């Protein structure tokens, strides 16, 4: 994988402010997304994720700061729109029309000639596995199929940057996995993806880098594993049957009733060996022992709660 620092920027925002009356939705947003990457934008409700996407996708005008997408200032809306695709939280396709008719319609609305729109629709139907359902009304599609069609519509102009706002909302696990595979394939073909989501597992699976928002600004950023190391830390988790009072001082009791204890493990497997040695010296035989990395959920909660304290 190419290092983000060696890639050109597909999205660059500096000090972006957006107000809605007395409410400041974006409070000096700084965001940089490398070309060809999948970048996750996370945050609690009201953090400003959708507002950020709105500004970058030219749906909203920033009140202050600068932002460029595909090298074009977002205030030059019409020019930016030639470079982007946008898939919102809610389906934008017509349920009465079939999949092929929808894609041709989106192509025509995007300025393609009829023949070009038909060719592009056919390509996307094959890419997204919708050929057999192409003539059926979208109302008969499953949630996963409908979401695939939504994403296909967002790619009708082969955009440089694709904005996906909560792309798997309402999907079952199978549908989510299918959409994840599509997103990975889109990025592999060179399209930059900015993904907003409240499913932290989704960001962990897909994103090259993650930005965590709180109150309209970025409070942490990095690769998923780097964020876990910086803000969580590996630990050994042990279940012991009894004798908690005989534990050496470095252990922390996390669930006394269940006999669960932890030990910090910045050196990974080396610390796991040390834990076994300490327990053996104390005459304690563990029932279970494992090396555990913090989840992105734990990092997210730690960061957002820290900001509130």
Automatic annotation (TrEMBL):
| Sequence similarity | Belongs to the ABC transporter superfamily. Drug exporter-1 (DrugE1) (TC 3.A.1.105) family.
Gene Ontology CC, one term: plasma membrane
**Which SUPFAM superfamilies does UniProt cross-reference here?**
P-loop containing nucleoside triphosphate hydrolases
For this chain's UniProt record, which GO biological process terms are given? daunorubicin transport; doxorubicin transport; response to antibiotic
Per the record, membrane topology reads: Peripheral membrane protein
- NCBIfam families assigned: drrA
Where is this chain's protein located in or outside the cell? Cell membrane
Note the PANTHER family from the entry.
ABC TRANSPORTER ATP-BINDING PROTEIN, DOXORUBICIN RESISTANCE ATP-BINDING PROTEIN DRRA
What is this organism's lineage?
A: Bacteria, Bacillati, Actinomycetota, Actinomycetes, Mycobacteriales
**What is the organism field in this record?**
Corynebacterium hylobatis
Q: Which UniProt keywords apply?
A: Antibiotic resistance, ATP-binding, Cell membrane, Membrane, Nucleotide-binding, Translocase, Transport
Could you identify this protein by its name?
ATP-binding cassette domain-containing protein
The residues covered by the ABC transporter domain are: 11-240
Q: Which domain of life is it from?
A: Bacteria
> Would the keyword DNA-binding be found if you checked this record's keyword annotation?
no
One annotated GO molecular function is:
ATP hydrolysis activity
